[in-house]
Fold this sequence. Notes:
The chain has a 4-stranded mixed sheet with strand order 3-4-6-5, with helices on one face. It is built from 3 helices and 6 strands, in the order H-E-E-E-H-E-H-E-E. By secondary structure, the chain is α+β, with helices and mostly antiparallel strands. Residues 1-12 and 23-31 have low confidence and may be disordered. Helix content is 23%, strand content 19%. The chain has a domain at 59-126: Ribosomal Protein S8, Chain: A, domain 1 (2-Layer Sandwich), CATH 3.30.1370. Strand 3, helix 2 and strand 4 (80-84) form a beta-alpha-beta unit.
Amino acid sequence: MPPPHYSAMKSTPPRSPEQLPDVQPSSRNRDPDGGAESPFPEPVALPINGVLDLHTIGPRDTQVVVEEYLRECYRQNIGEIRVIHGKGIGAQREMVRKLLARLDFVDSFGDAPMEAGGWGATLVTLKCS
């Protein structure tokens, strides 16, 4: 017997395509590759302060954003960066760490201490420029 909260859920029958409302294309900007819509008319500027939170970055853009952010930190002599990727299933963490391993200006990286995000964040140390 299912838990009580499941029995309270109502099921609706599937609708045929004729029953779906007409959807008009949006006038919002699309990305250059023709993919998902962007709610922003212009690129969004991120503060270069040594902390990059990836929760607001779309998965398609994550690698490019992380690399460019780290390059700008290197140019500005910000030697320690915390990349917050979240705990989740570890896909973002793995992507970030593969990127860090191939960047020649990265000295070291590892899990943040528990008070700074634990395994949901990666601390990066850049080589001195």
